[in-house]
Amino acid sequence: MSLHGGSSDAPPAVGNVISSSGNGVAAGDPSRPVAMVPSQRLRLTPNREHKPDTYDDLELEFSASIFSSLERHMPPSLLGVARDDKVKFMQEILLKYLPQGERNRVQRHREYKQKIISNYQPLHRELYSLNPASFFVPAFLKAINENTEQSFRSIMSEPSPGIFTFEMLQPHFSELLISEVENFEKWVNETKFRIMRPNTMNKYGAVLDDFGLETMLEKLMENFIRPISKVFFTEVGGATLDSHHAFVVEYGKDKDVDLGFHVDDSEVTLNVCLGKQFSGGELFFRGTRCEKHVNTGSHAEEIFDYCHVPGRAVLHRGRHRHGARATTSGHRINLLLWGRSSVYREMKKYQKDFSTWCGECNREKKERQRSTIAATKLELFRREGESTA
């Protein structure tokens, strides 16, 4: 078994963290000095009392929401400086993720999306703006509106640690989305337009962000998935999700059949079955791992299999190792949204121990503690022996 992190041919892990907006023009006057020390780092703990500036009115290389998220993590001495100076400080950090060659690739991808949106005619325009009452089941909406751990747990099951399942989508929404994807595929075939598939492991399906659904899905992440992730996945950046990669995958005859063992290029993954009629296709989970331990074995308590049900969602850490068994009959379509946190990815560089969520780090930590306790007891016995000699 070999796992290599992301299985995406959307931008690689670093590029995927950063959603681009605007025309790639950096904000601010580059000749102005920035009042900061280059070696200053972001704060690990955000300043929750600080109200960040808004950046939606600027033409930036990166999503405006990323700057708002990062600002709470800036050194205290920089929180009061001019907005342009804050942009420069944060952009310097973000540019470490995107060298010039990668930025050129992101620009090409932006042009690719624009070409699709300019030529593809949507079939169901009501999908392109988020309408919670017609998208989600009432119990899910009620839990989100109450926005408490108790309200979330009231609609959820946690059949295995860190895996949450709940009813989410109304059948009518699933039908509309399937119909829209089929219409997009028809357009692709008729125009012979070559599209990017969701990732390197799935040869069928479509990236929803690429044909106009990006704004709707961003609201889905920000207003519905991030509040839940803030409660259950804080230790992997669930509270600071600020970009996403959303797509549908298709399994069945003449489609993909199964999906190999892997981890997602996400902090938090939402996986919702849309339909149709099918058998097989179970998800199998085998424990959460950091990069260092991704290829280690599984333990009995980490083994869990899940059967898809249309309209029902599964929410888990991206680093929770999983795969999909063969869909043995019918046609299965799933919606996936990978939520990412640029803040978490920056902070993770300074961490070495992921024992709060990595199963193997946790076991190693417990083993070190046991060894320390055993050594301490042995030393006490030795001293007692010497004192009585």
Mean pLDDT: 84
- The CATH topology of the domain at 125-348: Jelly Rolls
Q: Compute the number of helices.
A: 11
Question: What structural class do the secondary elements suggest?
Answer: alpha+beta
Element order: H for helix, E for strand: HHHHHHHEEHEHEEEEEEEEEHH
Low-confidence stretches: 4-38
**CATH architecture classification of the domain at 125-348:** Sandwich
Strand content: 15-25%
Query: What global shape is seen?
Result: globular
Tell me what the structure shows.
- With 389 residues, this protein is α+β, with helices and mostly antiparallel strands.
- It has a domain at 125-348: q2cbj1_9rhob like domain (Jelly Rolls, Sandwich).
- The chain has 11 helices and 12 strands.
- It has helices at residues 13-17, 64-71, 83-95, 100-119, 132-135, 138-146, 149-155, 171-191, 214-232, 342-348, 359-388, and strands at 157-160, 163-167, 205-207, 243-252, 259-262, 268-275, 278-280, 283-288, 303-306, 312-317, 320-324, 327-340.
- Strands 1, 2, 3, 4, 6, 7, 10 and 12 form an 8-stranded antiparallel sheet that branches.
- The termini are far apart.
Give me the secondary-structure topology.
Elements: H1 13-17, H2 64-71, H3 83-95, H4 100-119, H5 132-135, H6 138-146, H7 149-155, E1 157-160, E2 163-167, H8 171-191, E3 205-207, H9 214-232, E4 243-252, E5 259-262, E6 268-275, E7 278-280, E8 283-288, E9 303-306, E10 312-317, E11 320-324, E12 327-340, H10 342-348, H11 359-388
Antiparallel strand pairs: 1-2, 2-10, 3-4, 4-12, 5-11, 6-10, 6-12, 7-12, 8-9, 8-11
Helix pairs in contact: 6-7
